Amino acid sequence: MKKVVLLGDRRAGLVEVPDPRPKEDWVVVKVLAAPMCTEYKLFKAGGKAEFLGHEAAGEVVAVAQPGPVKVGDRVVVMPLNGCGRCALCLAGENIHCQNGRDFVKTHGTAEGSQTMAQYLLKPAFLLPTIPEGVSYERAALACCALGPSFGAFQTMGLGAFDTVLIAGAGPVGLGAVVNARFRGARVIVAEMIPYRVERAKQMGAAAVIDPRDPDAVKRIKELTDGKGVDCSIDCAGCVAAGRLCIESTRRKGKVAFVGEYNDELPIKVSNDLIRNGLTLIGSWHYNLNDFPKVMKVIQQSPLIDWLISHTIPMSRIQEAFEISASNETAKVILKPWE
């Protein structure tokens, strides 16, 4: 099969490797849509990598034993590899499993672990089936595009009476716009890249604030009768975005963090938590039992196609990485067989 590799010096390519084989409850999925995520950061840094991608949608083509999926099933590939047996996995919180199986130890190789490839291996319980009529491209949005913010909004209980601040309008932040608008919430976005500003507006954001504005918090509070937003979500993963969320959220409000951090976010325990009564939430993904609800968003949201800006053949992987690294995209979907 063909898979994507980073060769260094901002170069990407394809290489041939052996096709994976099913084993125990691990099944082979033919990848038909592979969203790109944060891999562009390593590309921009000139790094090398042999195993890329963690989200996909495709068709089950081989199984080693009977299980929850069979050959021919159309499935979404959930990230990571939970054990499937612990209390967290059984409760649908497999993303937080502490006993995840070692891929290399199980299969004797890391080949098949990546999603930017024509085939992959995945435990069967992490392959929820795609409803009839949903394309592979749209179904693949049930991973990182919609997943982090969906899980956060479920935890926060975001609803139609709420105003939410979304910090960062990259693919994850735009997914948050889709999820928030589907719930009927009023959306304020903090973003400075013109492409993303315009896309957030087109997707129905009530206002877009430049986070570089020294009066950004004041402007957000002016839009909320001086109180601040009910909920906020940091999709940017940087200190400035995190502090903007905390300082712009009303007393007794909720702040969720879904963007990965490289630096420590300063939290003022007395002012932020005790006196303002904020609830801070970390959200990586969503409970697997909520997969049908995520699919409902995909099937019914009039904004869903705004979340895919580019669909690119994997044979044009260099171009795909350059586009992804431009920051002028929503979700970029690779087509491994084109």
Outline the structure in words.
This protein is α/β, with parallel strands linked by helices and 338 residues long. The chain has 2 domains: 2-143 and 303-335, Quinone Oxidoreductase, Chain A, domain 1, CATH 3.90.180.10; 147-282, NAD(P)-binding Rossmann-like Domain (Rossmann fold), CATH 3.40.50. Helices cover 27% and strands 25% of the residues. The strands form 3 sheets. Strands 3, 5, 6, 7, 14 and 15 form a 6-stranded mixed sheet that branches. Strands 10-9-8-11-12-13 form a 6-stranded parallel sheet, sandwiched between helices. Strand 8, helix 6 and strand 9 (186-190) form a beta-alpha-beta unit. Helix 5 packs across helix 6 (171-182). The radius of gyration is 20 Å and the shape is globular. It starts with a strand and ends with a strand. The model has no long low-confidence stretch (mean pLDDT 97).
Helices, strands, pairings?
Layout: E1 2-8, E2 11-16, E3 26-35, H1 39-44, E4 48-49, E5 56-62, E6 74-77, H2 87-90, H3 103-107, E7 119-123, H4 136-139, H5 147-156, E8 163-167, H6 171-182, E9 186-190, H7 194-202, E10 207-209, H8 216-222, E11 229-234, H9 239-248, E12 249-257, H10 269-275, E13 279-282, H11 291-300, E14 308-313, H12 317-324, E15 331-335
Parallel strand pairs: 8-9, 8-11, 9-10, 11-12, 12-13, 14-15
Antiparallel strand pairs: 1-2, 1-4, 3-5, 3-7, 3-15, 5-6
